[in-house]
Specification:
single chain; 226 residues; alpha/beta; three-stranded antiparallel beta sheet; 17% strand; binds cytidine-5'-diphosphate
Length: 226
């Protein structure tokens, strides 16, 4: 790969398909920036929840994002997300924030604001970005587009185990699965920039693949085009 060439890798797909794990490893391997766009929608949801605003209230949430300040910093190769100057990275992974993020992500005013920030980062450096609309909307000219999927049972199992590892023991497998099903439906059916596979994206079903296999496959695809 020509290391001077600016590249962008878009990784989209439903919750629990492994996007962030894979994107982080690819970014380390290629020494490029990783941008977790979901964290931005999660931060908007956190702000609404803290102010007792219903995350489905489009009017109130749109007002809320008018003067929101979201910053992404990379500290020790780790993405930290700042909401109005506060590092909220450790507060945005709760089930309540997950559902809230999917709700605020339906609102066009929210998306327009987040996409502006995402495109600005991609215009400055090589990135691997994960989300729902990166290949279809945020970076339509991305160097490589991947659409990562896995069966609902496998995705729920992965997310459930991830939460157990983080010490979250009060959410059952069934609840995790229902949360994912709710978000899949909400994310795929919204009018503005829904979760969808870009026509030129390569779909990888990771149900029976381990992390190393997925990373090797994607690195091979990058080698082929760069
Ligand atoms: O990690 P996980 O797949 O559970 O979710 P996430 O990537 O952190 O995204 C949280 C929510 O933000 C998703 O359910 C989407 O509704 C929304 N999102 C979006 O609409 N567009 C993106 N580019 C990224 C996330």
């Amino acid at each position: 790969m020509d290391s001077n060439k600016k590249i962008s890798i878009a990784i989209d797909g439903p919750a629990g398909a492994g996007k962030s794990t894979i994107a982080k490893l690819i970014s380390k391997k290629l020494k490029i920036v990783y941008l977790d766009t979901g964290a931005m929608y999660r931060s908007v949801a956190l702000k609404a929840i803290r102010q007792n605003i219903d995350t489905q209230d489009a009017k109130k949430v749109s007002d809320l994002v008018k003067d929101i300040n979201i910053e992404v910093k990379h500290i020790n190769e780790e993405q930290r997300i700042y909401l109005d100057g506060e590092d909220v990275t450790d507060f945005i992974r709760t089930p309540e924030v997950s559902i809230g993020a999917s709700n605020v992500a339906v609102i066009p005013e929210v998306r327009i604001k987040m996409v502006e920030l995402q495109r600005d980062i991609a215009s400055k450096c090589s990135v691997v970005m994960d989300g729902r609309d990166i290949g279809t909307y945020v970076l339509p000219n991305a160097t490589l587009k991947i659409f990562l999927t896995a069966s609902i049972e496998e995705r729920a199992k992965r997310r459930y185990n991830e939460q157990l590892l983080k010490g979250i023991t009060n959410v059952s497998y069934e609840e995790v699965k229902n949360d994912i099903l709710y978000r899949d439906k909400n994310d795929s059916s919204r009018a503005f920039a829904p979760l969808a596979k870009a026509e030129d994206a390569i779909e990888l079903d990771t149900t029976n693949m381990n992390i190393d296999e997925v990373v090797s496959k994607i690195l091979g695809l990058i080698e082929d085009i760069c």
